[in-house]
Amino acid sequence: MEQVEHSDNTLLLSEWQDLLNQTSPQVHDILTALSDEEIRHLVTAFYDYMLSHSESELFLNTDQVNSRLSHSMFHWLRSVLGSAGEDLPQLLENQRAIGIVHARIGLPLDLVARGARKLKNELYRLLQAKETIPASLLNDAICFSSLAMDTAIEAMTVSWSPGYQNSMRAQEQYRLLSIYDDVNVERERQINALTSWENQFIYNIATGLPAADIITLSASEFGMWLAHKGRYLLGNPEMLASIDELIKQADDRLARMRASEKQTEESRLSLLQAIRQLTGQIHRLLLAMFDAQVELENGKDPLTQLFNRRFIPTIMRREISLALNVRKPFVLAMIDIDYFKKINDSFGHNAGDMTLKSVATAIFDHFRSSDYVFRYGGEEFMVLLVESDLSQASIMLETLRAKIAGLAIEVAPGKPISVTVSIGLAEFDYHPDYKRLIEKADRALYVAKSHGRNRLEASRN
Ligand SMILES: Nc1nc2c(ncn2[C@@H]2O[C@H](COP(=O)(O)OP(=O)(O)OP(=O)(O)O)[C@@H](O)[C@H]2O)c(=O)[nH]1
């Protein structure tokens, strides 16, 4: 669902390496010799400080801090302060991974900076208070630790800032706001532009006008729109590449026609046929891309009318925030139709589609209007049961499982079939990264599948 641009760590890698080289081995020894107790003191001071700010509430809570985050922060500090002994490219890659999680949970950059400032402050005090550090090395130790932390944080920020914040949000906004208000209007306009180029072309060729007077498809109104706006709006790289190729073929045909001295009736006819065929293909691709765009903007899956995946991040973040406020968990359920491929194979794709629709309706009708039902993928659905714990959700889902197993789906007149589903459940554990929860429910679903299907399993960790 989420794509991350791979960041280039070359600059940070060489600068961190230079920093390590410039710093005397005694400084590295001082920092790696900090005791576990001293590092734990820094971690505690950091979390105490962060937990005292209400903005951090969504991202941290005391249970998490105790159970997991302190441990991660401990290792982060050890690895950054002891970076002389680390595999530096791997260390930078780890920062990138941390940045991706920060981005997903929407952690504001000012909170990261605030936390870092607190950590540095505590570390400086700790170093200054250590009488064993010679005065001549104290400054260097402070400088090195500060610069190493800054580099690590920069690596986190660089990796998620363009990937998520800028590129994804900006592209999304650009798509939604800047170019057109109504996708349907734009679709008509561009189909007309393509058709009018084709008509002009046919007219010129049929009436024997010189081929040189015909504008190429890439320079036509449609071609210009595609190059400047269309490719950013429609955003389907494979289909766009196919359209580019078809436009190129059309323009090549035209160029050959212009270059040839004699144009026979036969060559004109063959050109007309080729151009008709190429524009027909462009037409179909264009419609498919516009249709996909409409579906995406509606946020609905056209087959089942359930939410598609587009709004999962937004809804999950909002529900996590609500769950933290009311201190009531929610439950995620991943529901997957068993042996669905066999239905397609035995009864055809339409029967598969009907089955998907029936199961989707059964799922949607089963839950409260406050719950969310998504079509997560092909034959997989995701349900978010708000203000619910595992035991309540298990009862609801067990009834759903039995209900679906009892459905008679008429895939053809007089041909009812039955299907079963496997279900994986996970209760919100107050960790702000929603992706972890989806993965937990997915793992539970996998267990349900491997234990024989037509059953539900809850995540136990
Ligand atoms: N008819 C139809 N089939 C789809 C759709 N989306 C995905 N599929 C098909 O769903 C099938 C899923 O098959 P698998 O992932 O092998 O899973 P399965 O057969 O359900 O087996 P298990 O999940 O292991 O029980 C694939 O054959 C897909 O082509 C759709 O929208 N309509």
UniProtKB/TrEMBL annotation:
Pathway it works in: Purine metabolism; 3',5'-cyclic di-GMP biosynthesis
Cofactor needs: Mg(2+); heme
UniProt key word Membrane: no
EC number: 2.7.7.65
One Pfam family from the record: DosC_2nd
Span of domain GGDEF: 328-461
Reactions catalysed, as given in the entry: 2 GTP = 3',3'-c-di-GMP + 2 diphosphate
PROSITE patterns: GGDEF
GO BP of this protein: cell adhesion involved in single-species biofilm formation; negative regulation of bacterial-type flagellum-dependent cell motility
Gene3D superfamilies the record matches: 3.30.70.270, Globins
GO CC field: plasma membrane
EC class of the enzyme, as a word: transferase
GO-annotated molecular function: diguanylate cyclase activity; GTP binding; heme binding; metal ion binding; oxygen binding
Top-level taxon in the UniProt lineage: Bacteria
UniProt keyword annotations, A-Z: GTP-binding, Heme, Iron, Magnesium, Metal-binding, Nucleotide-binding, Transferase
Protein name: Diguanylate cyclase DosC
Organism the protein comes from: Kosakonia oryzae
